[in-house]
Design brief:
Elements lengths: L8 E9 L5 E9 L8 E3 L3 E4 L3 E9 L10 E11 L2 E9 L3
Antiparallel strand pairs: 1-5, 2-4, 2-6, 3-5, 6-7
Length: about 100
């Protein structure tokens, strides 16, 4: 997908909890660019999803100069406390 300079492309992301326990989440956005200004942003980067509920987030790309987006990684870290165990799951999303 192409995005013009100073235009905005967005993708809606939904985290769904089908379980019986709430869990916490944290998005980690890594841009491996030498640019000082971030071109990628994310709403609701940290939160809690209650059981049988969902959290909505939005990923946005808004370039201020002509560029190609490379080396950008979005990771979702999920943690939940079940009895005395702490479970951490993380994975990377490739958004095209």
């Amino acid at each position: 997908m192409q995005v013009e300079v100073n235009q905005r492309a967005t993708r809606d992301l939904v985290i769904v909890n089908c379980g019986k326990m709430k869990f916490n989440y944290k998005w980690v956005l890594t841009e491996r660019s030498a640019r000082k200004q971030r071109m990628v942003s994310l709403t609701n980067p940290v939160g809690t999803v209650l059981c049988s509920n969902e959290a909505k987030c939005q990923l946005a790309f808004c370039p201020t100069t002509r560029t190609v987006l490379r080396g950008c990684e979005l990771t979702l870290e999920v943690s939940a406390r079940f009895i005395q165990d702490l479970i951490n799951v993380s994975f990377a999303l490739n958004i095209t």
